[in-house]
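We emphasize that the prediction below concerns an isolated chain of 295 residues; any contacts that depend on oligomerization or on bound cofactors are therefore not represented. The input was used exactly as deposited, without trimming of termini.
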Amino acid sequence: MAIMRSSFYVPANNAKFIEKAPSFRADIVTFDIEDAVPPQEKGNARRMTADRLAYAGSGGSEVYVRVNGWHTEYTNDDLEAVVHPGLCGVTLPKTRDADDVKRLDWKLEELESRRGLPIGGIRISILLETAKGIMNAYSCCTASERLVSAFFGAVDYCADMRIRLTNEAKEQAYARTTVAVAARSAGLVALDAPFPDYSNVEAFEKNTLDGVSMGFEGRMIIHPSQIEIAHRLYSPTAAEVERARKVVSFFEAEGLAKGLASVAMDGQMIDTPVYTNAQGVLSRFDEIREKESGR
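Result of the prediction step, given as a token string:
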């Protein structure tokens, strides 16, 4: 169970943000060479990223790079520049179909082989943020063994659909749910979209909890103030952990030990799916605690 509650995006040509990267304590720090960098700055962003990969991860975060998508002329140059020790993964924006993912997989293997890096060591995260990407979500999510996560990209999705982006996100419901289901069915971590209205904490929390109810386990973060909130909302609460422990203990003692697969506890039926879900809560809690203690 990968813990990816926050993927904090840092403009890859912004020295000030890069220098602060280890202090943000995000689960993932992502150097953004795509939307955050204008064309004339791409080369500079590549150089700055390559120079600071290990540094960005020195605070305990995994380090990813969002390269430019295959629909641009920049992708190969991005990958040639940033695939070095210290890079944990590559995020591919505007993923259209399975071939986009397979092409990235092939290029990463070629670079790993050429540079003496472990084959398969660099992971892939994809952004599904166009109408075509949403329609091909499952095939994209199953196109490579390197895949670990899939993001929903609300801003580009709304632009592609020619609809207005809102904090309430009702216009995103179908696509957002599709990404969550496709990711989980492929065994990936579902990651929610960035929330541009970062100063509206109440709206950010509500939007995040809506995503939690859909199956998202983390999200793209565009402002440092969102990191702590995301970590709290994507982590089991103390009450959830306490109940999960009670369910596991009770079901094992009163159910499994007695040859039963359904038992009553506190006026509710506890069966195998409830037990399995409780085990998942405890596993996530333990992994988050281990991650935090390792910083």
